[in-house]
């Protein structure tokens, strides 16, 4: 089986903000576009326009409906669960000012978009289980890669990875995975501002951040400390490098206050009295 290198001081990885991710899949598409001709190319698709399309995607975005959280009901009540684990271990910072979640009666239901890709673990099971040395972890920056020339397509790494981050190419018969775009981040022909993974470059809401999580003074490390970033399933012991920033508390909508009887109600707009252009605009905006 494949041995791991000594722990590296430099730990390149991603920080993903679940509060601002809108599930647009730009990261998945941008990753696919870049890596289709990059270090891990090709990223093949089978029957892309057929009934059952399949293919290799290094980024996948899953969307979930999270039930409303009620902290006022008894602990044994299924409706009282904190589905996002927002109540535990949240530091009070400038970004999380206000009452703690224990003081908030309820959190409304919400849609949570969860981007998933390789977490570049410090002790990755996908590497140690590989019988040929095809899966390996780089000592200089901690990135986990696959040497496709050594890969025999046995899929042991995909079975060992608890995060589902491995992708099998049925066309080539080898395993593939996120490379953190090593052909971008070290490419001196690109402007320095563009030397980051494609998924980070294309994110329209800036929900993805890239940097050295081994440096406590880096921007990403400070962001994780400020927002209470968490590792995914740390209890498994694989020490994933990537971090997720939890959603901020939401406020449930409130009913509009009734107009007191001693107050004059607001005058309503008579659309028929408006000029034609404004009547058209009023119809468009009130659809």
Question: Spans with pLDDT under 50 lasting ≥5 residues?
Answer: 73-81, 92-104
By helix and strand content, what is the structural category? alpha+beta
Helix content: 10-25%
Global Rg = 24 Å
Q: Can you list the strand order of the major beta sheet? A: 12-1-13
Mean pLDDT: 84
- Helix run count: 7
How far the N terminus sits from the C terminus, by CA atoms, comes to: 63 Å
Describe the largest sheet: 3 strands, mixed
Summarize the topology.
Elements (H helix, E strand, L loop, with lengths): L11 E6 L8 H10 L9 E2 L7 E2 L4 E7 L2 E2 L35 E2 L2 E7 L8 H4 L6 E3 L6 E3 L9 H5 L6 E3 L4 E3 L5 H4 L12 H5 L5 E5 L6 H9 L15 E3 L30 H10 L2
Parallel strand pairs: 1-13
Antiparallel strand pairs: 1-12, 2-3, 4-7, 5-6, 8-9, 10-11
Descriptive account of the structure:
- The structure is a single chain.
- The protein is an alpha+beta fold.
- 16% of the residues lie in helices and 17% in strands.
- The strands form six sheets. Strands 12-1-13 form a three-stranded mixed sheet, covered by helices on one side. Strands 2-3 form a two-stranded antiparallel sheet.
- A hairpin with a 7-residue loop joins strand 2 (45-46) and strand 3.
- The longest helix has 10 residues, at 26-35.
- The termini are far apart.
